[in-house]
Amino acid sequence: MHAITGITGQVGAQLADLLLKEGEAIRAVVRDASKAREWAARGCEVALAAMGDRHALARAFEGAETVFVLLPSNFDPAPDSSENRVFTEALAAALQEAAPARVVCLSTIGAQATQENLLTRLQVLERALSRLPMPVAFLRAAWFMENARWDIEGARQQGVVSSFLQPADKPVPMVATVDVARLAAQLLRERWEGVRTVELEGPSRVTPLELAATLGRVLGREVENRTVPRAAWEALFRAQGMSNPGPRMRMLDGFNEGWIEFERPAAVRKGSTTLDTVLGRLAARTDA
C-alpha cells in the first residue's frame, strides 16, 4: 500500500495513475473527500487529512508500506514562514508515529542553497525528515516544464512570453512532471537504508528563447521572448496580489545567477519527455 499526498496535483495524480496501472494499492490522502471521488472510483482508499493536522496525517499513513509526501505550493508565504513550519512539523510527527517502511519526499533543485529564497522551505523539510528512523528519499526535481502553462494565453493572443528567467540565452534545468512521477514510482518500489537524495532534470536544458520558439511552433505563430526587468518585479507581483514577493524574487535570482543548481551535477538523472511534448499537451488542453 502506497499512501500519496498531493494526489490532486500534477505529480501526485500522475504518480497514482502509474501505480494503479501497475496493479499497486493506493491510499489517496486529501483534505476534501470530494476531490478524491475519481480516485475512489478507481479503487483507491481515501483518507482525509489536512496537511497541518499531525494526528489525521498519522491515521492516513498508518499501515502503508510507503508514503509519498510533498508540501503544497505557496508562492506568497507569510514572512515568518509559519504555515511551512506547521506543515513540516505535522508531517515529521505523523511519519514518526505511523512508521511506514519507506518515505519518498518531493523536494527541489537547489534545496541545499545557502541563500534564503522561496525554495528554502524544502530545505527545512529535508532537514526535519532526515531525522526520521525509516529510510527517506528526497527527489529533487528541476523547474517544471508545466510552469509554462501560464505563458500560453499571452503567447497565443499577443505573441509574447514575459520571462523572469534571464538572460534569455541562459539554459535552465527543466523537467516534465510525468518524468518526476515515473522516478517517484520507481523510488517507492526500491529498497535502501538511511537518507538518499536523487536529482532529476529533463533531456536537455531550456533557454527562455527556446521556450518562446517552442511555444511558437506549437501554436503556429511567431512568439517573442520579452524579459521583465528585475527592477519591475516587486511592483508587478504586488499588483498581482502578492503581499510577500521577496522569497519568489530571490528564487528567480537563484536560477538566473546560478546558485540554485543541483548539488551533485554528475549524478543527476535525466527524464525523457521533451519540452515540445509538454507544451503541445498544455496547448491542446487550453484549446479544449
Would you mind describing this structure in some detail?
The protein has 288 residues and is α/β, with parallel strands linked by helices. The chain contains eleven helices and twelve strands. Helices cover 40% and strands 18% of the residues. Helix 2 (37-41) links the parallel strand 2 and strand 3 (45-48). The longest helix is centred in the N-terminal third of the chain and has 17 residues, at 82-98. The chain is globular. The model has no long low-confidence stretch (mean pLDDT 96).
Helix content: 40-55%
Series of H and E elements: EHEHEHEHEHEEHEEHEHEHHEH
CATH topology of the domain at 2-145 and 175-202 and 262-272: Rossmann fold
Described by the principal axes of the CA atoms, the overall outline is globular
* Averaged pLDDT: 96
- Structural category is alpha/beta
Compute the number of strand runs: 12
Q: What is the CATH homologous superfamily assignment of the domain at 2-145 and 175-202 and 262-272?
A: NAD(P)-binding Rossmann-like Domain
Features:
40% helix; two-stranded parallel ribbon; Rossmann fold; 288 residues
Outline of the structure:
By secondary structure, the chain is α/β, with parallel strands linked by helices. 40% of the residues lie in helices and 18% in strands. It is globular.
